[in-house]
């Protein structure tokens, strides 16, 4: 699938499409170019093992999808955030995070988002369009080049957009990252607001990726208010799909929980959440809400976060508090783009 309107970009070409572009060349050239673009993450101009006309042909047939508009570093250089402009002028965000034991890239799958979660900056801004496979893959390539000499070990599909609402392009990106780019499926995590048919499709795929479900509320009344898609796919259907995923994949399921002061941080919320986690042996990722301009509530204070997590742990649930990387550069959740809108 190509980026809309403008023909394929560099990583929209699959191997067969690349072979067509190089139809008059010996087949080992196709291998060289494919390996250079994916295994070595090279720009076409850096493919010095192929003739200049071939380099030029690749550049003409499949130009880069992304142009960085803003690149910001934070956390003493451990976090880098890009605001990329696509060829039609649409903007998306990508984040690179260095940890002691891993290097993680967070990619966008759509420009904007149609899910309309009120607390999310991307949701507040609405939907622009789906990203193509190439636009998703190239985000990882750009970040991986910046991360060198460290290798990107993990990719999380937790940037702008809803991956399972752009299923085909997202899944093709997963396969490209896992195969030619060489990131293990168990280090790829799709995060979803809870699109039940998408989770069921994922359960039937061969590659065992990790699934994260953005829960934020563990009863239908609260979740209807926080995550509007819950009215279409209520919790009992969502939990049944999660169960099917875990049974099929044997991968860890995690629930995301943006902890919002007085909204979902009380003891009864922890108890409701624990009840959903236990049968699925789900892990909980807690992140104190990052404040956004369109939503009045604030993140829970540290002490409340601690109590919420303790209560979950006492109920036998595994919990991680996610550090809020990049707050100082508006790396949280669509805010960089929001600040650069005309
Ligand atoms: N649409 C997908 C992936 C993108 S959002 C999903 O919903 O999972 C990635 C994560 O960031 C989700 O868990 C989302 O709920 C969370 N998030 C969005 N806005 C946030 C905010 N202001 N503070 C904390 N987490 C937020």
Topology of helices and strands:
Elements: H1 15-21, H2 27-38, H3 52-61, E1 67-74, E2 79-85, E3 91-98, E4 103-106, E5 110-112, H4 121-125, E6 127-130, H5 133-147, E7 154-157, H6 167-178, E8 188-192, H7 196-203, E9 210-214, H8 220-226, H9 235-249, E10 253-259, H10 267-280, E11 283-288, H11 302-314, E12 319-321, H12 335-340
Parallel strand pairs: 4-7, 7-8, 8-9, 9-10, 10-11, 11-12
Antiparallel strand pairs: 1-2, 2-3, 3-4, 5-6
Helix pairs in contact: 5-6, 7-9, 10-11
List keywords for this structure.
alpha/beta; 12 helices; 19% strand; binds S-adenosyl-L-homocysteine
Verbal overview:
It is a single chain. By secondary structure, the chain is of the alpha/beta class. The protein folds into 2 domains: 10-61, DNA polymerase, domain 1 (Orthogonal Bundle), CATH 1.10.150; 67-339, Aldolase class I (TIM Barrel). The chain is built from 12 helices and 12 strands. The chain has helices spanning 15-21, 27-38, 52-61, 121-125, 133-147, 167-178, 196-203, 220-226, 235-249, 267-280, 302-314, 335-340; strands spanning 67-74, 79-85, 91-98, 103-106, 110-112, 127-130, 154-157, 188-192, 210-214, 253-259, 283-288, 319-321. Strands 1-2-3-4-7-8-9-10-11-12 form a 10-stranded mixed β-sheet. β1 and β2 form a beta hairpin. The longest helix has 15 residues, at 133-147. The radius of gyration is 21 Å and the shape is globular. The two termini are 29 Å apart. The relative contact order is 0.12. Bound molecules: S-adenosyl-L-homocysteine.
């Amino acid at each position: 699938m190509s980026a809309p309107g403008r023909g394929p970009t560099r990583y929209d070409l699959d191997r067969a499409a690349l072979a067509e572009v190089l139809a008059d060349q010996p087949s080992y050239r196709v291998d060289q170019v494919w390996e250079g673009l994916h295994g070595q993450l090279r720009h076409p101009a850096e493919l010095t093992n192929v003739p200049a006309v071939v380099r030029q042909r690749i550049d003409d047939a499949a130009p880069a999808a992304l142009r960085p508009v803003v690149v910001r570093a934070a956390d003493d250089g451990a976090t880098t955030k890009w605001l990329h402009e696509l060829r039609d002028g649409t903007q998306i965000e990508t984040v690179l995070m260095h940890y002691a034991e891993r290097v993680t890239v967070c990619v966008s799958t759509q420009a904007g988002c149609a899910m309309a979660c009120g607390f999310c900056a991307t949701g507040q801004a609405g939907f622009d369009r789906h990203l193509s496979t190439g636009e998703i893959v190239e985000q990882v390539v750009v970040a991986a080049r910046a991360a060198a000499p460290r290798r990107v070990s993990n990719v999380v599909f937790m940037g702008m957009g809803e991956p399972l609402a752009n299923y085909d392009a997202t899944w093709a990106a997963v396969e490209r990252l896992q195969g030619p780019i060489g990131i293990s499926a168990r280090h790829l995590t799709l995060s979803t607001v809870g699109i039940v048919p998408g989770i069921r499709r994922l359960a039937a795929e061969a590659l065992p990726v990790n699934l994260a479900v953005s829960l934020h509320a563990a009863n239908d009344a609260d979740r209807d208010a926080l995550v509007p898609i819950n009215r279409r796919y209520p919790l009992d259907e969502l939990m049944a799909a999660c169960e099917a995923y875990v049974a099929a994949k044997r991968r860890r399921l995690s629930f995301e929980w943006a902890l919002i002061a007085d909204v979902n941080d009380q003891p009864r919320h922890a108890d409701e959440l624990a009840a959903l986690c236990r049968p699925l042996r789900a892990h909980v990722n807690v992140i104190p809400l990052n404040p956004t301009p369109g939503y009045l509530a604030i993140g829970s204070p540290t002490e409340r976060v601690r109590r919420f997590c303790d209560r979950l742990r006492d109920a036998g649930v595994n919990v991680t508090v996610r550090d809020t990387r990049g707050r100082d550069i508006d790396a949280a959740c669509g805010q960089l783009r929001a600040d650069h809108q005309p």
